[in-house]
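The material for today's practical consists of a large collection of protein records. There is nothing in a record beyond a sequence line and a structure line. Backbone structure tokens are a discrete shorthand for how the chain folds in space. Nothing more is needed to start thinking about how sequence determines fold. As an example, a complete record with its sequence and its structure tokens follows.
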Amino acid sequence: SHTDFSNKFATTDFISNHPELSSVSAVEDPSIKILKFLGTVIVNGTPTPLGTTLKPSTLIPTLPIISNDSIIPGWKNILERDGPSGFAKAIVNHSKPLLTDTTLRDAHQSLLATRMRTFDMKRIAPFLAHDMSKLLSLECWGGATFDVALRFLYECPWQRLAELRELVPNIPFQMLLRGANAVGYKNYPDNVVF
């Protein structure tokens, strides 16, 4: 809005001749506040993931008691008995659709920022082994699980797999392994991935 600039009298030394143009206003633009908030949420997570004025539920769920003695053999047993080629043949010869449960990887990665602890997974693992024994696989590995287990949950991702395997011996585990970024968040050079 400077008159020299508006009237096209500005030269290459216009800014150095008018230092008042470089002074920054002390008033913060509202859009900057929004950007700072979004940056904080991206880096640190949502400050209040749940409503703070809500009272906790008084409902106490009753969990079924499931014995590991009653686990029905599943696709993992076929893999162990017949090997990879026998496993592949059994899949090809299977006439019904086969399902993979992604709760232990994609569901909580998408809905809970991958913050589901091994403790939480172990609580539902016996149910999966008992009532979901016909699943082709459980996708419980890959994506952001490795990074989040180490960086945010302070858990050993390998120990998680071992503990889940003890509780779910009959369903194969599946991993999401992306092409160019493997289990990271950005593309890696080919010599890192291959």
Q: What stands out?
A: The chain has a mean pLDDT of 84. The radius of gyration is 27 Å. The chain has two domains: 3-44, 77-192. Residues 36 and 42 are 10 Å apart (CA to CA).
